[in-house]
Design a protein that fits this description.
Helices cover 20% and strands 20% of the residues. The chain is an alpha+beta fold and 188 residues long. The protein has a single domain (3-180), classed as Alpha-Beta Plaits, CATH 3.30.70. Strand 4 (75-77) and strand 5 (84-86) form a beta hairpin.
């Protein structure tokens, strides 16, 4: 089984509640590290303006580039859930290594601002999953733009969307996400 995310770009208003809920739940200190990120995409020219948002968590790829390239073997992938996990005790740190940042096409590896910070990232709320709950970002989303669960179920429920403004599906790494894209307005 492969767990993954569903994201409805048509519903997201960029409120960042998912980001705050994640940071609070996981006690991530104030600073640059966010296990869930939201990126604003702006395009067009008046009167045809386009604004949309895209989530940037770890997509728990089928073939994660971070795992493949980590020299310390600090990253692994669960055979049972497909979740990409990290052993921070083995991680060499951003200053000594940082290869995961270079290789992840989605910017998922996160680092605090302390000296030689160790990598950190979304684990799809492992402790909540063990209790049968959804990730905190999903439960916190006011617009119900997020869901998470077995990828096959996400595809069955929401379709096979892989394209959206601000997101490129990389066939080599195969991110575990289904996206409902916001339509871009055609030019006048």
């Amino acid at each position: 089984m492969q767990l993954g995310f569903y994201f409805d770009q048509t519903r997201c208003v960029g409120c960042f509640t998912c980001v705050v809920a994640c940071k609070d739940w996981h006690d991530i200190p104030a600073g640059p590290a966010n296990w869930m990120n939201v990126q604003c995409i702006e395009d067009g020219a008046f009167p045809r303006l386009f604004v949309a948002y895209i989530i940037r968590p770890c997509y728990h790829c089928e073939n994660p580039a971070c795992l493949e390239n980590c020299p310390a073997k600090a990253i692994s992938k669960s055979a049972a859930s497909g979740i990409v996990t990290l052993d921070r005790n083995v991680c060499l740190g951003k200053k000594a290594c940082g290869i995961c940042i270079e290789t992840c096409p989605y910017g998922s590896p996160q680092f605090g601002d302390d000296d030689n910070a160790k990598m950190q990232k979304c684990d799809l709320c492992a402790e909540r999953r063990q209790q049968g709950k959804k990730p905190v970002c999903v439960d916190a989303c006011l617009m119900r733009a997020l869901d998470a669960g077995p990828l096959d179920e996400m595809k069955e429920k929401y379709g096979e969307g892989r394209r959206a403004a601000g997101f490129s599906y990389h066939a080599r790494v195969k991110p575990s996400v289904v996206i409902k894209a916001r339509k871009v307005l055609p030019p006048i």
